[in-house]
Amino acid sequence: MTTPPLLSAQGLHVTFPGRHGAAHARAVDGVDLDIRPGEIVALVGESGCGKTTLARSLLGLVPPTGGGVTFDGKPLDYSSRALKAYRKRVQLVLQDPSGSLNPRHTVYDAVAEGLRIHGYGGDEQAAVAQALSRAGLRPPERFFLRYPHELSGGQRQRVVIAGALVLEPELIVADEPVASLDASVRGEILALLLRLRSELGLSALVVTHDLGLAWNIADRVAVMYLGRVVETGDVEQVLTAPRHPYTQALLSVLPEAPGDPVVLTGEPPDPSRIPSGCRFHARCQILASGEAERAGVADACRGQDLEVLDGSGGAQVACHWARAALTS
């Protein structure tokens, strides 16, 4: 944990104005998160928790309304010139390869697009071939003149990854990188990302709702709920001994999980009306079962706010009950 982070968010807030004078939606509501060189961090949570907005803010696509982002020790500059240089070093891999690729562009043009935007002065064809080869499309020349509709889903996702790799970035942000792929292909893409980390020293933030994916690929996991990270730590520690009731509920529905699945009641609260106390308390199975009452923390769960977890990566949890259990 002594290595300085490559990418860091400090007290990050992103709010969106409500319609017709309604309260602002606090999509990201105070997040600290560090990603170190060569590290893969999984950002996990259900739909609507703010993880994609956080990722977009880290990429400079959504300016924060509070806090800030630093990259390689320097605050992110939101001028057009600075963002262009930043996006050469930090690349995005989207969920849907079919939507990411222009159906009228060949594979060659899709991968070469980044080079052309950034005014690459070297051998374009050699760079495209190397990126395709690194992404597992070999021999690369065989794919140059193909169109997306001529490829399988896994091959399309490899083209998207090649398009990110061609600029030789230091970090990639992968938003649900295997969600649209068949189970047989998912493992191949995950193995590819791990190989790229070992061969190129690539860092990655993998945004996902799938804890099984996090287990297979990440060094560290950050579990997000209603705009905040509520539990973080080494992936094995968090996913084998989860302390936050929300993490426990997410893990309980995996096929290999012991015991009965925890079915959370209702939907996540409206981010424009975040409840007081623990933001998960309205759906918390520990509070509903009376366990929090027996531990003497039920009132704190309902009314005492929890501080923002720091981004250092040590094992942390934002839960009154879990902290009480640790000290008892």
Automatic annotation (TrEMBL):
PROSITE patterns: ABC_TRANSPORTER_1, ABC_TRANSPORTER_2. Pfam families: ABC_tran, oligo_HPY. Residues 7-251 form the ABC transporter domain. Keywords: ATP-binding, Nucleotide-binding, Transport. This is ABC transporter ATP-binding protein. The lineage of its organism: Bacteria, Bacillati, Actinomycetota, Actinomycetes, Kitasatosporales. It comes from the Bacteria. InterPro entries: AAA+_ATPase (IPR003593), ABC_transp_ATP-bind (IPR050319), ABC_transporter-like_ATP-bd (IPR003439), ABC_transporter-like_CS (IPR017871), Oligopep_ABC_C (IPR013563), P-loop_NTPase (IPR027417). One of its GO terms (molecular function) is ATP binding. Belongs to the ABC transporter superfamily. It comes from Streptomyces dengpaensis. Signal peptide: none annotated.
